[in-house]
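Researcher: Please generate the 3D structure of the following complex. Treat every line as part of one assembly.
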Amino acid sequence: MVENKMKSFVPEAGTCIPWKIKKEEFGVLAGNEEIVKSSWEMLDALAYAFIWFWVQR
Amino acid sequence: MSDKEKLFQERFKRYTVALECGKPDKVPVVFPLGEWVVKYTNTTLQEAYYNVDKSNEIIGDVIRDLDFDVMFGAINLWWPPMFDGMDCKLYKFPGIYFEENSGFQYVEEEYMKAEDYDEFIANPTQWLATKYLPRICGEFAEPGSYRATVALIKGAAAFAMHNDKLTKTGEKWAKEYGIVSATTGMTKAPFDTLGDALRGTKGILLDLRRRPDKVLAACEAIVPHNIAYAMITAAGDTSLPCFAPLHKGAYPFLSLEHWQKYYWPSWKAVIEGLWALGKRTFFFAEGDWTPYLEKIAELPDKSIVFCIDLTDAKKAKKVLGGRFCLYGGVPTTLLTYGTPEEVKDCVKRAIDELGGDGGFVLAAGGVVMSDAKRENIVAMIEAAREYGVY
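Model: Done. Output below.
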């Protein structure tokens, strides 16, 4: 069974799951953190825009 | 650099000089894109809504021989397949609900209940994802189910696909026609975000009497999100203003007292927040905003483009002119019910009254829908070129 490591948090505007939260869950990153971080934030922003799209008509 | 690229640069400069309240070589003129272009073809509105490539073909045929600087509006503002995939209740489109030449309709409900305020205020994004989406989408009736999971995949994929289409379309108009987009990104006044799609008109008007503190707290909670949403949807661009369709702030929807207390502070905070990031707001003031001009004048210089629909144009020029770019001058009703001669007279008058010292963009004052006449649009653009040379 997968251990539930997910914390509860209030994401700041522009984010759904901020990198700092996910980084803690990943633990130590073996490779280049910046590449992982920038891709995470790009997709997170898309998810954020999708969620808020429905009320910005 | 190709001729079209040179033309784009020339028009971009013309438009952005005006946005900065300067005097370009000519008054920039805006083509009002809308569903009206479809009625001059054999295509149905349903096909134009669903098929972005088809609607682009139609637009290309209409604009090919016209000389204008900036394009504003869209046929495919909402892409129905995205809504169909999630069984979204917010809109009804031709095809499933209406015959194929009907326009779309928004279905307003209290999708957020009065008792939801505290949870929404505490964590707006999570509340939207976990409570709002299941309420507005039939496919999400059982969150986590097979149907809901597939619908979420479809909705997100459609969102990305449509955004990509829109981006490529803007690039096509720039490259092949030398046309500049009026805006990049989108935002709203927090009161409109809350009143349009969450509480609904009836809900928010009752809230002003029954739970006014909740309205204020919710609007404050929305402010940073409407700044972030603008910058994300603009992909960080600050060269062009952010589109902001304004609904419940037009006079006399709210009393002056309610407007000052509930509508303006959070909307001003969004505009100032964007301006601090270098992003100007396209203050799309449909309807009449005359009583509020002095309050709007409190904004930082050049932080908005003020769009004149039914607002008193002379007063807008007096109160805002020189400090903010003014946009509009041609009522949408004239484009539907007027004649080309009346439109030309209106354009001449608008340029004389509003554009004499720059800081003015000639355009329709609101969204031009399906009932506008093509000959009036052409007359507007031709007259702008005839009378709009500085």
